[in-house]
Write a structure and sequence with these properties.
It is a single chain. Helix 4 crosses helix 5 (484-495). The protein is mainly beta. The protein contains seven helices and 41 strands. The strands form seven sheets. It has a 16-stranded antiparallel β-sheet that branches.
Length: 722
């Protein structure tokens, strides 16, 4: 099916690189032709005319190439491929069988293919297509498969008798539905390529969305599945190698295969009864693979060019600016400092795992008003709602309504672009994630605060050593997704004397999995608890990649309060309110942070929802790990009517875990505490805080005002300035 594509776009082999390292660019044009790629430094990515505006530094002297581009296709949809199936006599009887679970049947999909033979399902039930002397014939059971129920589906063929039978039987039922046909010149494949959930090797099509289990090829004609079965030619056990992309044949010819586009494993199978909730303890209960027609591991595009980061390139946020006759695009990336330095005193930790989790989030909000604002502001005109070909985010669902648990960075990410608008924000710019974090970068630039950039992925790979040289580390607006390595490194940093400024909300919330074999992939299971776009099925809370329990870090006994002093407490629409200073902010131990700030109310303005305390708010809680010496310096007031208490805080509609009234938990708090080693943590408890670094009031327009003053006092103190 043809789908809309951007005029020009691409992706890099990595989100970040150091001087001297290579960056590989993979580019695709809607129509083949020339294009230009030049380097820019990203200073600010907010196109709002009431804000600082889109700001780039032209670095075409570093990289400026005109190349001939071509269209590179994307092949969505996961499947299993066995390059060579079992050898057998083409005239001997044979049976193909597979267990099937589908939530919804729309159109015809392939369950198993073997050479020219195909077994599938459609709205009329199981069917088979097979070649005879007069061409390919199709036979159908005529009874639809009920959704969310396991079936055995099979095809039995006897060339000598010229007979084929296709059948289906719901597991646990004695009712068998089958159809038979006489067919002259019946031709059976031998040692052909076998596929699961698609057909046609090389150009896969007819993708199946649903679960498959226990595919097998038997050396005989089966009419009764309760009777002894004929010998096995091949039998693929999906319970073997769950963390891998290998599918194992336990039959005599060892016809092993592999998976394409990362379907979901560690999925409850046909015989799961809940005796074990972790697939590592009973892999045979998890012998299913859930395939989807929208899965995407890697676009697999050919390289267009390789660029070596110059040895003197400063650390910072950069982008490839691509232009062709039909349009333009930016591909962001970061440059880290050299391993040997020099290093700035301040590091910005880019939340690349969060950017990747939200990558191409289709919200359904790209209406006429949204597009009119994007056009008027010169914002990015491309919204994921209109371009499903680039894959969806972990906030979307597959066609069978199962949640998307895998996200790849080897694809164009429309939401990770300077100028991308998430919302048509009535009181601000409507930015989130990558472009929202450029509010902080633009502020650092305006305040002449030297900084380096590092990323979540770098921190996961390198651990505490990546942070050790910095006096202070600043997060962005929404560091939501973390691995054990990143949390451990940040905790080690603060306990070793480092100073962390957590400048967002809803941070350190979800646990994600990564493995060295798939460095471009993150996986998450939205297990019990938390505000979430979908929920994992019971028994599917453990990651397939690392076998560890997923879900909230709070459910993994690592509440955000243990690291940052505050944790997720309330959420509403993309709108904000203000903070009111509390008595602790006037204490001599903390008053330095508020030097130059008059009045009790701070942050009643901003480019993100119109207020510094908004959208998602965090609060302190000693029971969840807020240190006893933490001081609450300010607290948000008057939450907008759209705000609710997060579900993990609720025991019922009346009672909360903490014992406070539910409405009282809809607050954000600014918190500060020291660690025993001389480290410190400053946390603002709000996603929209950095949007208020810019004051849009005409009389006071710019990076000034109480929020800017507060953060400047903290950062300069943390960095060791006088």
């Amino acid at each position: 099916m043809n789908q809309a594509v951007l005029p020009i776009t691409g992706y890099l082999d990595r989100f970040s690189a150091r001087p001297g390292e290579d960056v590989v660019a993979r580019i695709s044009l809607r129509t083949a032709g020339p294009y230009r790629a030049r380097l820019v430094r990203v200073i600010c990515g907010d196109p709002n005319p009431d804000g600082p505006g889109m700001q780039f530094e032209d670095l075409s002297a570093r990289l400026d190439r005109t190349l001939q581009g071509r269209h590179q296709p994307i092949h969505l949809g996961s499947y299993g491929l066995v390059p060579k199936g079992p050898a057998r006599s083409p005239t001997a009887p044979c049976t193909w069988t597979i267990l099937v679970w589908t939530a919804d049947v729309v159109g015809a999909a392939t369950l198993l293919s073997d050479g020219h033979l195909r077994i599938g399902s459609d709205s009329a039930g199981a069917f088979a297509e097979i070649a005879g002397s007069s061409g390919v014939v199709r036979i159908n059971t005529g009874t639809p498969l009920a959704p969310r129920r396991w079936y055995r589906v099979w095809l039995s063929a006897d060339p000598a008798a010229g007979r084929i039978v296709v059948g289906q039987q719901a597991l646990g039922s004695s009712d068998i539905v089958q159809a038979s046909r006489e067919l002259d010149g019946l031709q059976l494949p031998s040692a052909a390529a076998v596929m699961f959930a698609a057909d046609t090797p090389g150009t896969p099509r007819h993708h199946f969305t649903g679960k498959l289990e226990a595919p097998a090829i038997l050396a005989g004609f089966v009419t009764d599945w309760s009777a002894p079965l004929p010998p096995t030619l091949a039998a693929w056990d999906f319970a073997i190698g769950i963390p891998t992309q290998v599918i194992t044949d336990t039959g005599p010819q060892a016809c092993h295969g592999h998976l394409v586009n990362l379907p979901a494993r560690a999925i409850v199978g046909a015989h799961w009864i809940g005796r074990e909730m972790c697939w590592r303890h009973a892999p045979q209960d998890y012998a299913a693979i859930q395939f989807h027609d929208g899965d995407l591991d890697d676009c697999g595009w050919d390289s267009d060019f390789t660029w070596t980061v110059p040895s003197d390139m400063p650390s910072g946020a950069y982008a490839l600016h691509l232009t062709c006759d039909a349009g333009q695009d930016h591909i962001p990336f970061y440059v880290l400092p050299k391993q040997t330095g020099p290093f700035a005193r301040v590091a910005f930790l880019a939340s690349t795992f969060t950017y990747q989790a939200y990558a191409n989030h289709a919200r359904g909000n790209a209406d006429a008003a949204y597009k009119a604002r994007a056009a008027a502001w010169g914002a990015s005109p491309y919204n994921p709602d209109d371009y499903p070909i680039y894959g969806r985010s972990t906030y979307n669902c597959h066609a069978d309504n199962s949640g998307i648990s895998i996200s790849s960075r080897r694809r164009p990410i429309l939401t990770m672009r300077p100028g991308f608008l998430t919302f048509d924000d009535a009181r601000g710019s409507g930015l989130r994630h990558y472009p929202a974090d450029t509010h902080l970068l633009g502020w650092l630039e305006a305040k002449n605060i030297a900084f380096d950039v590092i990323t979540d992925e770098d921190l996961d790979n390198e651990g505490p050593a990546l942070l050790a040289t910095y006096r202070t580390v600043l997060t962005g607006s929404h560091p939501e997704y973390h691995t054990p390595n990143t949390l451990n490194a940040l905790q080690h940093y603060t306990h070793a004397g480092g100073k962390l400024a957590y400048l967002g909300g809803n941070g350190f919330y979800w646990r994600v999995a990564r493995v060295p074999e798939l460095p471009h992939i993150i996986e998450l299971r939205r297990a019990e608890g938390g505000i979430r776009a979908w929920q994992a099925e019971p028994g599917e809370y453990y990651h397939q990649l690392d076998g560890q329990y997923g879900g909230l870090w709070r459910r993994n006994r690592r509440p955000p309060q243990m690291l940052a002093g505050v944790g997720f407490s309330g959420q509403g629409k993309f709108e904000g309110t203000y903070y009111r200073r509390l008595p602790a902010s006037y204490h001599p131990d903390y008053a330095w942070m508020f030097a130059g700030i008059d009045g009790e109310i701070i942050g009643d303005y901003g480019l993100s929802g119109g207020g510094a305390a908004g959208f998602e708010l965090d609060r302190a809680d000693p029971v969840l790990g807020t240190p006893a010496n933490a001081a609450i310096l300010a607290r948000s007031e008057n939450p907008p009517a759209s705000f609710v208490t997060v579900p993990e805080e609720l025991l019922s509609h009346l009672h909360t875990v903490s014992g406070e009234e539910p409405d009282a938990l809809m607050r954000g708090e600014i918190v500060y505490f020291n660690t025993e080693s001389g480290g410190a943590v400053f946390a603002v408890g709000s996603i929209t805080f950095c949007g208020s670094l810019w004051n849009p009031a005409p009389a006071n327009r710019g990076f000034n005002g109480p929020i800017s003053c507060l953060l400047e006092n903290v950062v300069r103190k943390f960095a060791g300035e006088t």
